Amino acid sequence: MASEVEVRVPDIGDVEDVEVIEILVAPGDRVALEDPLLTIESDKASMEIPSPYAGVVETVVVKLGDAVAEGSLLLTLRAEVADTAVSEPAPSPGTEPETRPEASAAPTPLPPPPKPPVPPVVAEPGRTPHASPLVRKMARELGVDLLATTGSGSHGRILSGDVQTTVREAMAGVAGHGPAPLPSAGAGPQPAVDFSAFGETEVQPLSRIQRVSGRNLTRSWQTVPHVTQHDEADVTELESFRKRHAPEAESQGVKLTLLPFVLKACVQALRDYPEFRSSLDPRGESLIVKHYYHLGVAVDTERGLVVPVVREVDQKGLLELAAELAALSEKARARKLSPADMQGGVMSVSSLGGIGGTHFTPIVNAPEVAVLGVSRIETRAVWRDGDGEGDGEGRFEPRRILPLSLSYDHRVIDGAQAVRFTTHLARSLSAMENLLL
Ligand code: CAO
Q1: pLDDT recorded at residue 76
Q2: pLDDT at 351 > cutoff 90
């Protein structure tokens, strides 16, 4: 059941001249109860407007820089009065001062659902971190990226002390996933350039997904020492197997692409190399090894890159995985992924093989420690040693070669382990009967 709700500026006391300084959602975005929608700011304080219901944003009435006052309409929401809509608990009352807006329509806000505790590590990809407006303001003033700040409050909520810790650690040069470098630590942001001085230009705002994934990618690029190991797998037999079975899969409504085989090969390698399914603890002092096999898969959508997670890949067959991948990418492209769909991956796979390219250097989806890039299969003449004796007897054969690019966090994985991992992957993909076991 759904009904339309108007979200208005709540009672803000005797304050005039309030400006909309952040719009965190766009029409079509799915929000959970208490998800931040936008932030307004007077010359004295800023205030975040949380979502009064779980639902889908219909229209955003205001734009950045608009002046608003008590009662001004900010946005409309199609509220869902069903227990499927909530994906994150509300912050505990009393931890931070925060004002709830009055909503003008009927449904009763859903109570926070029971949920396993969110580990206070780094903010989830694709999510806005929980912090009060005052903490946000403080972070803005100090140049602290809240997405890179560890929240010690209830449900990982970021408190003012956490922002101070980030600053202290950045000043002391502490390494780890937590603190992002402060602007003063590097060359600083690109200086503004007036491109219109050189010719005609237009401004195209980035989508929310692009902005959030941009922040996550920047943080990962800056905090994870990346190395990329390139390798190749001979997938000649795998490809003929796949093509033989494609009609049968199609009769069950499933398109059997290469990707399910790659996911299965990753699971086999992950079983033997547990550090690839680990994360560094935020202090960089120990590894948290995961004993599950959920894999992220990068999906290209017209609004940007998202990485939904396929769960328990070890327990699923190839057809089941193919069907699930199709459903997840469909969901991603229809903008229907929930935050939960994008959490819990132990490693990610980014396949550009359907498009082209030879090798590339994917960015680790931190706090994961490895990402596998898959490029386009190429048919190549490969020398096949007839009797395996290396005596020059043999011939060139056309083989189907799949390029692999494994980027990894060098704090956790060393080069020798990485090449063992890609060798394992290549072997599994070549001897594909093992993948079917
Ligand atoms: N080599 C050659 N052909 C390949 C291939 C490869 N490595 N991988 C896929 N293909 C083929 C498929 O067989 C399919 O062929 P047909 O249309 O002839 O049947 C075609 O390419 C398209 O495949 P697909 O994209 O529908 O399916 P997929 O399982 O390979 O990928 C998904 C699914 C969701 C990963 C993909 O659609 C996608 O979004 N890829 C982009 C990911 C991305 O942007 N990553 C970037 C990360 S870094 O910025």
Answers
A1: 94
A2: yes
